[in-house]
Amino acid sequence: MYLTKEEELALAGEYGYAVQKAMEILVALGDVYGADRLIPIKSAQIAGVSYKNIGEAGIEFLRDFVEAGAKVSVYTTLNPAGIGDEEFMDRQAEIIKLYRRMGVDVTATCTPYYGANLPKFGDHLAWSESSAVSFANSIIGARTNREGGPSSLAAAIVGKTPNYGLHINENRKATVVVEVETELKSFLDYSLLGYHLGKTLESDVPYFRNLKPERLDQLKELGASMAATGSIALYHVEGETPEWKTAIRDKVERIQVGREELEDIRERFDTEWREIDAILIGCPHASLMEIKEVAELLKMRGKPLRIPLFITTSRAVKALADALGYTEVIERYNGRLLTDVCLVVSPIRDWYSGIATNSGKAAFYFSSFGLKVRLDDMEKLMMEAP
Amino acid sequence: MKLRGKGIVKGKAEGTALVSRKPLSFLGGVDPETGIITDVESDIRGESVAGKILVFPRGKGSTVGSYVLYALAKNGKAPKAIIVEEAETIVTVGAIIAGIPLVAGIDVSKLRSGMRLRVDGESGEVEVVD
Questions:
Q1: Where's the Phosphomevalonate dehydratase small subunit-like domain (chain B) (predicted)?
Q2: According to the CATH classification, is domain B2-128 in 3.40.1110.10?
Q3: Which of A245, A294, B10, B95 has the fewest CB atoms within 10 Å distance of its CB?
Q4: Domain range annotation of chain B
Q5: Of the candidates A31, A53, A61, which has its C-beta nearest B97's C-beta?
Q6: Residue A60 sits at the chain B interface (C-beta within 8 Å)
Q7: CB A166 within 8 Å of CB A241
Q8: Catalytic status, residue B62
């Protein structure tokens, strides 16, 4: 990989240990994936925040890095944290403090694009968090690989990322055309489609035909579910997403998806209500539209939920929900808006044995932790829950 | 016997091979305190990676696994070097932050546990020493 003089100096340790280690990470990844050079990035989004996930090992690494003077050099936001008991929260606070000391904006959300960190078409990024990567690539037309926590941190410090993968035009072309042979109506349908395709496809770039999303959140969920059950980081939707016109090559494999495949997934997650002890909306973090929908449905329901309803969201969106009165309505019906956190990265198995959600991504992770899961429409969840 | 791969993380090491035929997950798969492999799907479960030349086809699982390699190094339980067929992000980043020499592109089916290996993380050369 070609390095500028400045980059060579950084690699040699001229700008300190932290920059050197960060450069070593970028150069090695560049070598592994055949990058020709480093390219500047506009922003970074860092995963590896929850104490449940990174543990003491991660804290030690971050602390050593901070003590070596590590500072981010581009705008950088953070993934959501975990929640747990007092000891857990102490360790969690330590992690957040370390990121803050590196100059990271602690927005702690998986939807930075609904607030602080909104890229534009063509921007190069180094984002981790698979659902945010999918959103940035597919819906915005920005360019990022699926970074891991340490590699997005390294890129944030250096302000650059190796030029390979989805930063290159050629790799953004569709590798499979997905003919959707059933009408997708709800958020749930997009969850099911994403769940199914993530399992079926490999690290493909799907191109969807006959998809007419009514809301942005539906596409957000499609990408999140595909990225959770598979490793898909970019997709195109005919007539909808910004790069669809240039996405198709001459010979591309075609597959069909019908109602049957979606029903197969739904049937896996049809746990009965008596086995469910909480409801989660907001994986990835809920938009204002989703929160508004919950508030309206609860009003129609007319009586409080007996089991708790958690809506995870970003601070930016919560502030709007507060101002517009949705938070107050939701709280009246036994719902809570949680910011900065994610139940998927919390020791949730200690508290609940069954969760209902409308998110294919959450359903996938919760069931992998051994919880019973009901995956259903937001409307059904709000109307039929005990 | 000499095998030539690609040097990914610099450094030289000599030691006894611990060879897995299966992909290895570090997060939840290797105890950072003891270096013992706990991955239930692993064919070298129960063995310790500490001080060994760890050989496996590729990493799998959570990218947080990189931090486990770092913790192993801090606890003095890291492998002396790592040899893989395919370097992916988890192991590559973990080896860098932990300072463990890493060679990729080696046909690991040619190596067996107990062999004495000499590894050069710069040239990418792996030598079986009798």
A1: 24-103
A2: no
A3: A245
A4: 2-128
A5: A61
A6: yes
A7: no
A8: yes
This prediction's pTM: 0.92
Per-residue pLDDT tens digits of chain A, which is 386 residues long: 999 999 999 999 999 999 999 999 999 999 999 999 999 999 999 999 999 888 888 999 999 999 999 999 999 999 999 999 999 999 999 999 999 999 999 999 999 999 989 999 999 999 998 999 999 999 999 999 999 899 999 999 999 999 999 999 999 999 999 999 999 999 999 999 999 999 999 889 999 999 999 999 999 999 999 998 888 999 999 999 999 999 998 889 999 999 999 999 999 999 999 999 999 999 999 999 999 999 999 999 999 999 999 999 999 999 999 999 999 999 999 999 999 999 988 888 889 999 999 999 999 999 988 999 999 999 999 999 99
DSSP-derived 3-state class of residue A146: coil
Task: Give the sign of the dihedral formed by CA A265, CA A268, CA A270, CA A271.
Answer: negative
- Chain A residues close to B97, C-beta within 8 Å: 21, 25, 61, 150
* Residue whose C-alpha is closest to residue A77's, from A346, A314, A362: A314
**Are A116 and A107 a contacting pair, CB within 8 Å?**
yes
Task: Compute the C-alpha angle A199/A204/A207, nearest 5°.
Answer: 100
